[in-house]
Amino acid sequence: MSYTIEGDTGAWEVVIGLEVHAQVTSNAKLFSGAATEFGAEPNTQVSFVDAGFPGMLPVINRECVAQAVRTGLGLNAQINPWSRFDRKNYFYADLPQGYQISQYQFPVVGTGRISIELSDGSTKEIGVTRLHLEQDAGKSLHDQHPTKTYVDLNRSGVALMEIVSEPDMRSPEEAGAYLTKLRQILRYLGTCDGNMEQGSLRADVNVSVRKSGEGYRTRCEVKNVNSIRFVMQAVEAEARRQVEVWESGGTVDQETRLFDTGRGATRSMRSKEDAHDYRYFPDPDLPPLVLDTAWIESLRQGLPELPDARRARYVSDYGLSAYDARVLTAEKETAAFFEAVAKGRDAKVAANWITGDFFAGLNRVGKGIDDSPVSAENLGALLDLIADKTLSGKLAKEVLEAMFETGYSPLSIVLERGLKQVTDTDAIEAAVAKIIADNPDKVEQYRAKPTLFGWFVGQVMKAMQGKGNPALVNEALKRALDG
Ligand code: ADP
Ligand code: MG
User: What is the pLDDT of residues 187-200, one digit of tens each?
Assistant: First the structure.
């Protein structure tokens, strides 16, 4: 599927490379013990190191390094047992040290790759150039006072992973798919929460255009784009702008630009700085970062199953379609929910209910899977009531709706809402007695597995064509089974 922009002089190909800043999930900062909680009162999570006090010494946080290594392993990347921290010097009011501690020539993680999925069902490998650790800067607040700018240093010193891709993407869709996949992997690994609204994940989007068969032309970097949709829009807008520049006889200058989401266009921020402008040099306060291979190996052993593997397993083991497998593995919480419902049941039926009525229900009540009113256990119980024919598919949908509203188990809703009721206790007792007499094996199993109770209720209901008073059936069964 090739994407091009048609100009007066013919088709232009778009070339995209992403630099993603991912905030490391960690309770403490990269070189200090200060907390990293989002949304704290300004300047309440700042140590002397983060405030750049003279004479303070940074000490590397082992957990942040472990998170970077886990991420590298999750990106199929080479882990460098020897890396180094450098000072990247620049002046800014929210950078009290006067430099950022980063990694330049020797990053902790080398080349890797990410496989992305495209809407036509194809996949493509995107190269990862490197991943390095660095400190975040503080934040300037320009909107708190008419003439003053305030500085909040809570973010100063928070660990970031900068993940740089090769210029391997060729369309807005590929750029979006790359960021989606990277975010998914980070969230599976638990190394970054991926929250783009809070700025935990932000992308610098490098874009150039060229005629087919040419080498790369000059690129521009669109800074700090904070949603996947905006990344795709920024690529499109910036590529179109460059095509116009080239076609009108101009040249694209390498520069840093901003994406104006309101106008849907990029605008110039500053001309691109070069590495030598930063006067990088090894940070004399920090020894080289030397990693023990056994430690790297133990981190590898501790990695969770990642989205690609999980998706493949859903297709091969559960027999799901590629589409369902992809939807169900999008978030690890969804995957865990599906696996709990599918356990001991028909996996395809479970997948259908989850991707259909269950997701629709969550949408309706405005909740996520983590605070779903319908637990995996209760959804499973509902599927059991369908399987044993207590409920028709249509009735089950109604019951599920009620489950979303009340949080109750399907059985209690079936009982409570009743169907047409028979309150004649003799008729109910007779039906109960017959089911028990006809199913001695089930009665035996019930002793070890009380959850079979629902099966008995279902059978009695069925025998009574759904007309037994559910509460009375329940009582009569309890008496008969439990004595
Ligand atoms: P810098 O460190 O100066 O930003 P890099 O060489 O590290 O420069 O590249 C930064 C990003 O720009 C990478 O993601 C890379 O893939 C991308 N990139 C490099 N050249 C091009 C190009 N011609 N068009 C689009 N993206 C590019
Ligand atoms: Mg860069």
Answer: 999 999 999 999 99
CA of residue 218 to ligand 1 center, whole Å: 10
* Phi then psi dihedrals of residue 47, to 5 deg: -95, 175
Question: Token digits for 246?
Answer: 């080239």
Rounded to 10°, the helix 470-482/425-438 angle is 50
User: 210, 13 in Cβ contact below 8 A?
Assistant: yes
Q: Do 210 and 217 touch, CB atoms closer than 8 A?
A: yes
Residue nearest to atom 2 of ligand 1 (CA): 275
Q: Which residue has the tokens 């807005």?
A: 172
**What residues pair up with 6 in beta bridges, in sequence order?**
11
How far apart are the C-alpha atoms of 358 and 364, rounded to whole Å? 10
Residue nearest to atom 5 of ligand 1 (CA): 164
Find the ligand nearest to 238 CA: 1
Residue type at 180 in one-letter notation: T
Predicted confidence (pLDDT) per residue in 262-321, tens digit: 999 999 988 877 777 899 999 999 999 999 999 999 999 999 999 999 999 999 999 999
How far from the centroid of its chain's Cα atoms is residue 47's Cα? 31
Burial of 403 (0-12, 13-18, 19+ CB in 10 A): buried
Tokens 């209901």 -> residue: 461
Query: Which residues have beta carbons under 5 A from ligand 2 (an ion)?
Result: 19
Ligand lying nearest the CA atom of residue 224 = 2
Nearest ligand to the CA atom of 206 = 1
Q: Ligand 1 test: best mutation among 206, 225, 273, 278, most atoms within 8 Å of CB?
A: 206
Give the distance (Å) from ligand 2 centre to CA of residue 19.
Answer: 7
pLDDT of residue 421: 44
- 420: pLDDT strictly greater than 50: no
Q: Looking at residue 423, what is its pLDDT?
A: 59
Give dist(CA 140, CA 21) in Å, integer.
18
**Class of the domain covering 425-482:** mainly alpha
Q: Token digits for 22?
A: 């991912």
CA distance to 258, 283, 436, 458, per residue, from 240 (Å) = 15, 41, 75, 63
Torsion of CA 154, 110, 173, 312, to 10 degrees: -110
- The DSSP result for 148-190, as a single string, is --EEE-TTTT-EEEEEEE-S-B-SHHHHHHHHHHHHHHHHHHT
**Domain segments of the chain: what residues?**
4-298, 305-417, 425-482
The rounded Cα 345 to chain-centroid distance in angstroms is 27
- The Cα diameter of the chain in Å comes to 94
Give 265 Cα–ligand 1 centroid separation in angstroms: 20
Atom of ligand 1 nearest to the CA of 208: 24
